[in-house]
Write a structure and sequence with these properties.
489 residues, alpha+beta, six-stranded antiparallel beta sheet, two-stranded antiparallel sheet
């Protein structure tokens, strides 16, 4: 397997947030000469001679392409085995669900596609369902990427191509035709390209503080789409720890307890790698506390743990460790829900030549989120127990996302507008971690890149259909076990 080479600048950015030994390099960088915006734009443009923008149109299945089901089975080895059938059932729901859960499959395919070598803090699992609104520390709603489990230095093209392909697959899921699917993919690339050009001319602090807030979201939408966005945001504002308390718990002996819903929500009493589950969780949280700032520690110390349970989340994450922890503050009406989620090696790591030196994969997720998102959860941190890495965040804090309905062609116009927002959010994340001027110089002002990646997206949508069929064949032949649908929703 050939490792993809990327610019090491983004790796150094991650490393500087990771190790005190990088302080001298950071100090030395203060006096290093800087290329001008015009020079960086020209350097990016010059890369077109090596990697023409039209080259991104092609997706050719490699002759030795790995079996997609085998890739998923390899991932499942380290997962909770009784939950693997749940993962497969969720992925079989549709080609769109398959794409959401198969980042490892697509990354293997992307590793054989052209790249310019410009690195960013790549999300690694970029698709249209990995965006949403959340509350900043100032209690403002922000639209951004909301899943960083696979974040890692990588080519910016991989994120953009996966996002565009997911849009095409989602449109077909909603009942749209080929023209509508390609337009959704175009909308993502066009928005990414235009926003990146704006970020190229902005100062570093301007980029760092830039947010896609509620006003910015509503101002970009048509009246019809705006009404839908306002409803989603109203629901997000109503979501919080108290609403989750009402939904996930019941009163037992005068205290709230998380309601079990086997196999999706389970209160575990057995051991984790030989350690009692409650002791393992306490050990992990003790380690986690060291990763957050002193002011957050003081705030968290005012709560006490009331209950915890394993909770299945997402599609691709099913089977990895994930717990919900209920803490109580002043009284039973002052809850705090934390999500403790296992972090494993990023799906990008085997395919890029620069490897991170993080001692904890949870820290990789946290650093990547802080770098790309700009307004992360105040309780975001990491820990380890029994050799397994985790990161921690709030389960619910004014979070909201767009839902896509199967066979709903009427919603496609609004979806294309949503794709424009997704392209913007991805450009902002990449501008924070990469070189926006060089990327903008390469992308250019014409629609050449839009059309090229649109063609790639349509070709990969077809591949996704074939891979979904392969997984279904594995179900029919008994190669894999699949949970009953009523158990996985």
């Amino acid at each position: 397997m050939t490792l993809v080479k990327i610019d090491a600048n983004v790796d150094r950015t991650f490393a500087r947030m990771n190790a005190a030994t990088e302080n001298m390099e950071l100090l030395e960088s203060f006096t290093a000469p800087r290329a001008t915006v015009a020079e960086r734009l020209q350097a990016g443009k010059a890369l077109r001679t090596q990697v023409p923008r039209t080259s991104h149109a092609t997706f050719e299945k490699a002759a030795n392409r790995p079996d997609p089901v085998a890739i998923l089975e390899e991932q499942n080895v380290s997962r909770v085995q009784k939950l693997v059938p749940v993962r497969f059932a969720r992925m079989l729901a549709s080609p769109f669900a398959f794409l959401r859960g198969s980042a490892a499959v697509m990354t293997a395919d992307l590793s054989n596609t052209p790249v310019t070598g410009m690195g960013v803090g790549a999300c690694g699992d970029m698709h249209v369902s990995n965006f949403g609104v959340f509350a900043s520390a100032e209690r403002n709603l922000i639209f951004a990427i909301n899943d960083f489990d696979e974040v890692h230095p990588g080519p910016w093209e991989w994120d953009l191509k996966r996002l565009a392909a997911s849009a095409a697959v989602a449109v077909r899921f909603m009942g749209g035709d080929r023209v509508e699917a390609e337009e959704a993919a175009h909308a993502i690339v066009r928005s990414y390209r235009k926003r990146m050009r704006r970020y190229a001319d902005m100062g570093f602090l301007q980029i760092w503080y830039d947010r896609i807030d509620e006003r910015a979201v509503l101002d970009t939408l048509s009246p019809r789409a705006r009404r839908g966005a306002e409803r989603m945001m109203d629901k997000a504002r109503a979501k919080g720890h108290v609403s989750v308390l009402e939904k996930l718990t019941e009163q037992v002996g005068g205290e709230h307890r998380i309601i079990e819903e086997v196999p999706l929500i389970v209160r575990e009493t057995h051991t984790v790698s030989g350690t009692p589950a409650n002791v393992a969780l306490n050990d992990m949280l003790r380690d986690y506390i060291q990763s957050i700032t002193i002011d957050r520690r003081v705030l968290l110390s005012r709560y006490r743990i009331v209950d915890s349970a394993r909770k299945v989340v997402g599609v691709g994450s099913v089977g990895t460790g994930c717990w919900v922890v209920l803490l109580q503050g002043v009284d039973s009406d002052d809850p705090l829900f934390l999500q403790v989620k296992q972090a494993q090696q990023s799906v990008l790591a085997p395919y890029v030549d620069h490897q991170l030196s993080f001692e904890n994969q949870g820290r990789r997720v946290v650093v990547g989120q802080r770098l790309a998102q700009g307004s992360p959860d105040i309780f975001l941190g990491w820990g380890r127990v029994d050799g397994k890495d985790f990161y921690v965040r709030q389960l619910a804090d004014m979070k909201g996302s767009v839902k896509f309905n199967e066979s709903d062609p009427a919603s496609i116009d609004g979806f294309v507008e949503y794709c424009t927002l997704c392209g913007w959010a991805l450009a902002l994340a990449h501008a924070k971690s990469g070189d926006p001027a060089m990327i903008a110089g390469y992308c250019g002002n014409s629609e050449t890149l839009d059309e090229a990646i649109g063609k790639f997206a349509m070709a990969y949508a077809k591949q996704t259909d074939e891979d979904h069929d392969a997984l279904d064949k594995a179900r029919r032949t008994g190669r894999i076990r699949v949970a009953a649908q009523e158990m996985v929703k």
